[in-house]
Amino acid sequence: MGQFIVRRTLYAIATLFILSLTIFLVVRLTGDPVTLLAEPGAQEEDLAVIRKDWGLDRPLPVQYAAFVKNVLTGELGQSFNYEMPVSTLYFQRLPNSLELALAATLISFLIGIPTGIISAVRVNSVWDHVGKTVALLGLSVPGFWLGLVMILIFSVWLGWLPTSGQGGWRNLIMPAVALGWYFAASLLRLTRSSMLEVLRSEYIKLARLKGLPAFAVIAVHAFKNALIPVLTLAGINLVIMLNAAVIIEVIFAWPGIGRLLYEGIFQRDFPLVQGIVMEAGVMIVVINLLVDILYAYIDPRIRLTR
Amino acid sequence: MTPLLEVSGLRTHFTSFGGTRIVKAVDGISFTLNEGETLGLIGESGCGKTTTCLSIVGLLPTAARIAGGRITFGGQELTEKTSREMRRIRGRSIAMILQDPMASLNPLFSIYRQVAEPAYYHQAMRGRTLRRRVQDLLAAVRIPSPAQRMRDYPHQMSGGMRQRIVGAIALAGGPKLIIADEPTTNLDVTIQAQYLDLLKDIQRDTGVAIIFVTHNLGIVARMCDRMAVMYAGKIVEHGSVRNLFNGARHPYTRALLGSITRLGSKEPLYAIPGQPPNLARLPSGCAFHPRCPDAVPRCSTEEPPEEGFDDGWTVSCWRAAAEPARKEYDRTSA
Ligand SMILES: Nc1ncnc2c1ncn2[C@@H]1O[C@H](COP(=O)(O)OP(=O)(O)OP(=O)(O)O)[C@@H](O)[C@H]1O
Ligand code: SF4
Ligand SMILES: [Mg+2]
User: Which of B62, B109, B122 lies closest to A211 in CB terms?
Assistant: First the structure.
């Protein structure tokens, strides 16, 4: 187990290093942030002062080293626009994003997993076709479009739900559905295919041969095995929804990290974008580690060999 | 004495391509099995052995259904049972052992849990009684120190051990019939022999009847009282092992006996010239005629009826009635 953690940590460091280099270069391809401030009469000298202020006049390797240092201190640098540490901004928004992401995860679980199981257990039945249709819609209908349609129906026409902002569950429900929609579909497909594979196995045949009730065969013997790949996807989904729910947060004016990222990109706020991406990267690494530990808890083969 | 199991005229068909193609995997077979008896079911791959077994336990794949015939077990008609009733029968009076011991156990559950399940669900056993029961079952299949080993998981056990655990699961409900579908094919020779001895001992102690499906005639000679030879979904010859080994009446049985393999050989029965038949496109008349060294003209047009002889011996072959039983498989006489 110790060796396993060491190896995983080394991988994680390498991954985060590559991620930091990539995002550092990519944000700089989007253009010069200072020109966004340039008013018609602006003097080149003024801009140069700002550039120097933000440290953009230094050579790239020096800028990168500063970025890495900022990541290592956990502060993530100063936002150009907010003029405060990116980490402060990030953690201000985190609870809001967490609220939305957890609600969306719950919705995607409630829709995706039972429908996936039923589709697999009743292959080619009406249920399976319903499941396939939901999966197809989920993967092809964009969440933002669904969000706009919901706003139109439930806010504009029926007046039941507020169009935007954050507050109680009435504010939460539409963005959570719009955000969870795609992941419900991807969970559904994965649960279905994973269950189908498990249901074909010899040990499920043996479970049936024991005369176990259908519930015990499917919910206990089959589902526990089918759950393993589903967990990984769920973990990654959560991180994505937490950090990159950009469009949904913009549409519903949800004060989360996705909207912060959106502002950062539009204003070429390099430290902000870099910081959010690095946070997401760290989170993916941590979640994957947690999922692996969870695997070991579920699967005795992993538990004992590592 | 009424037999324990009586299968008569059983037909099980696979339907595919929306009902446009029918595969008659089991096509009108009949046999009986008495209490404590062992029947060997043999034949080449794809001739319908597994489908026969699954028809009896009521666990056919969704594409298959019983199209006719009766399966009477202990006086009850199984083909008319609901799935709930069949479930109770599977947990108690009929058990089945599958071919692949490495894949038959659920990797995520302890041995204890998997062996305990039948008693837990069917006999409502709990707590210490249940633990006692699991230990006894594991001891019956000669798992050393069962109290410790039952806490283990399948991946900690060898193939032979796992297959014995599957045996313990089969015994859990106190069955009257065990169907063993090639239970030793994936085990190595010495383990195979041990396993067969174990089954024999269990049979002696409990009086359970066994249907033993195999490719291997060596195993049939060692294990079985009677044997049924299947070809293309039909039983072509059925009789006592002694009689058939001393001189079979059906050319296909003779061919099988001519290609007999050592105990422990993993080779399937491919020593017979020609291809095993494709069940979707069967030859007319006797399905064996393209490969039969003894075929006569009518074999390719008319299907031979089943004929009975002494000792419950039955054969479906046009030439069987006319000729005495023979031992040799003559490759030149065609
Ligand atoms: N799911 C299926 N759909 C269509 N046909 C099938 C299906 N499963 C089996 N069959 C057909 O049924 C026939 C009998 O199969 P079965 O598994 O009973 O043979 P077997 O005698 O047990 O062979 P083996 O020795 O290889 O285990 C095969 O010829 C196969 O073509
Ligand atoms: S009926 Fe004819 S073809 Fe069939 S086994 Fe007998 S002799 Fe051979
Ligand atoms: Mg088979």
Answer: B122
In whole angstroms, give the CA distance from residue B311 to residue B290: 30
- Which parts of chain A have pLDDT scores under 50? 306
Buried b (16+ CB within 10 A) or exposed e, B144-163: eebeebbebbbeebeebbbb
Domains of chain A: 2-73 (no CATH), 94-255 (1.10.3720.10)
**Which tokens hold the place of B40?**
């060997």
Q: Which residues 6+ apart lie within 8 Å of B294 measured at CB? A: B251, B319, B330, B333, B334
Does ligand 2 lie within 6 Å of residue B257's CB atom? no
Beta-carbon separation of B98 and A298 below 8 A: no
**Strand arrangement of the beta sheet that strand B38-42 belongs to:** B94-97, B177-181, B209-214, B38-42, B226-231, B234-240, B314-316, B306-308
* B68: β partners: B11
Separation CA A287–CA A289 (nearest Å): 5
B320 CA closest ligand 2 atom index? 6
Considering only CA atoms, give the Rg of chain A.
Answer: 23
Q: Which residues pair with B95 in a beta bridge?
A: B178
**Chain A: residue nearest B175 by CA?**
A210
Inform me whether the C-beta atom of residue B117 falls under 8 Å from chain A C-beta atoms: yes
ipTM metric:
0.86
Strand order from edge to edge, sheet including B5-16: B21-33, B5-16, B64-73, B76-77
What confidence tens digit (pLDDT) does each residue in A128-143 have? 999 899 889 888 888 8
Domains of chain B: 5-224 (3.40.50.300), 230-329 (no CATH)
Contact A203 B91 (CB under 8 A): no
Q: Is the CB of B318 under 6 A from ligand 2?
A: yes
Q: What is the value of pTM for the model shown? A: 0.82
Amino acid making up residue A94: L
Show Cβ contacts of residue A91 under 8 Å, excluding neighbours closer than 6 positions.
none
Measure B104 CA to ligand 3 centroid, in angstroms. Answer: 15
- Give the span between the Cα atoms of A23 and A19, in whole angstroms: 6
